[in-house]
Structure formats: structure tokens, C-alpha cells
Amino acid sequence: MDFIDNDRVIPKGDLLKRIEMNYNRLETEEYRVPLVFRDTKYSWPGDWEGRTMLALVLLAKSTGRDPQYLNDIIAELHKHVNSMDYFGDLLKNGIADEQQIAGNSWFLRALCELYIWQEDENILGMIKTIVKELLLPMRAPYENYPIHSSDRNVNGKAIGELTGENINGWKVSSDIGCAFIMLDGATHAYEVLQWPELGEIIKIMISKFFECDHSGSNFQTHATLSALRGVIRFMNINHMENEYLPD
């Protein structure tokens, strides 16, 4: 399975019209500096910012139209990320916040798409720092992710909120399985960096993901699909033949 190649696929007709409408919406005030940056009370660090940046880059690549406000967002990033270039608090004592991990996956995806598009060495530096400081220390948390429904309190809003529980080193969310959204960001970073040590972390994440009872544990659809996109990307990069997915 291949991903869409924007150099070969040119949107036209109703599809192009819908893409342009979405592009116009993403250039309204809510998605510009300063409103695009959430405050410190936002419980999904990097989610809004990352999705906005990713959408703008992908829309630019698919239409050939330069985003008007993306450079403004990039210029302000240093004021809103932590000292290790990701959103939210620094990872401490091996305790992972799965909403923070999920949000930063969108941010990491955006940076990877941006680097592949523009080859900006500053963006590459941010990708490397996030991988070193956020992802490589995640071996133990992912090995111990609570995979059974009996392991956790499923109460909470479906849109996602921290339940207040700390289970196996995870601050868990009612958006069950959202920690595996990071498979999308991690595999994209692996595509860019080709670091073997990141590949080993990804293998652990994939193994744990497939141990989960996705239906019985009420994994959310968007988390499952994002994770599977990462699995497919990892298989493509490593030329795997059905290593993880059945025929």
C-alpha cells in the first residue's frame, strides 16, 4: 500500500473545490497567530497546533498554493514548545501523558511533512530533538501500556479527557488508545531519520498495539486508524511483506 504522491495526483472538480474551501477555513483568524496556540490549561498539548500545521502543509502540497500564515506559526513555535521542542511538560520519571503523546504526534507529523517539503535544517533539528527527548525514552511506558479494559476506568467524555488515573506509568485518557496515534508521527520521523534506535521503539509500540483488544477496550476509531497508518508506513519503509497485517 502506497501513500498519495502529490506530484502525481492532481485534484480537480468537486474535490478541488472542497480542498480550497477547507484551505480557506484554515486561514481564518482561529488558525493564525496568536489564536492557533493553546494556553497551558489545554489538555491536548500540540494537538491543535500540530493538526493545523499538518493540514496547511498537506493542502499546500496538494494544491500548489502557498499558505499565507504558516511561516508566522513556525516563527512563533519557540515561544510555545518546551526546552526539548515539543508541547507540554517535559517527560519526567517515565510518566507519560497519553493525550500529550497523541497531540505531539500531529506536531511531529507536521514537522516531517514540512521538512520533506522545504528541507529546512532548523525543522530537521526539531524533529531530532523530539525523537531523542520524547520518543526514545518511551520504551518502558509502551511496554507497560494498560491494554485491557479491566485495567482502567472508562468513564469520561468520548472527546477525550484525562481520567485522573496513573496506570503503569501512564496518565490515561477517556479517548482510549490515543497513545497509539504516535505510531503515525514516530514512523514518519523514522522515514526522515532512519535511526535504528527509533525503529526499535516503533516495533515495541506496534507489538503492544496488536496485543490490545481494540473492540473490547473501546479503542476510538481515529486512534486505531492513525496507528494503522503508522504500521503501514513502517512496513513500506522496511519493505515488509505482511509482517503485521494479514492478506
Task: Indicate the mean pLDDT.
Answer: 90
The description of the largest β-sheet is: 3 strands, mixed
Q: Radius of gyration, rounded? A: 18 Å
- How many angstroms does the end-to-end distance come to? 12 Å
What are the secondary-structure elements, in order, as H or E? HHHEHHHEEHHH
Q: Output the strand order for the largest sheet.
A: 1-3-2
Runs in which pLDDT lies below 50 for 5 or more consecutive residues are none
Task: Report a brief summary of the structure.
The chain has 247 residues and is mostly helical.
Can you describe this structure?
With 247 residues, the chain is mainly alpha-helical. 50% of the residues lie in helices and 5% in strands. The chain has 9 helices and 3 strands. The chain has a 3-stranded mixed β-sheet with strand order 1-3-2. Helix 4 runs antiparallel to helix 5 and helix 7 runs antiparallel to helix 8 (196-211). The termini are close together.
Keywords for this entry:
247 residues; 3-stranded mixed β-sheet; 3 strands; 5% strand; globular
Task: List strands and helices in order, with pairings.
Layout: H1 13-25, H2 47-63, H3 70-76, E1 96-97, H4 98-118, H5 121-135, H6 139-143, E2 162-167, E3 170-173, H7 182-193, H8 196-211, H9 221-237
Parallel strand pairs: 1-3
Antiparallel strand pairs: 2-3
Helix pairs in contact: 1-2, 2-4, 4-5, 4-7, 7-8, 7-9
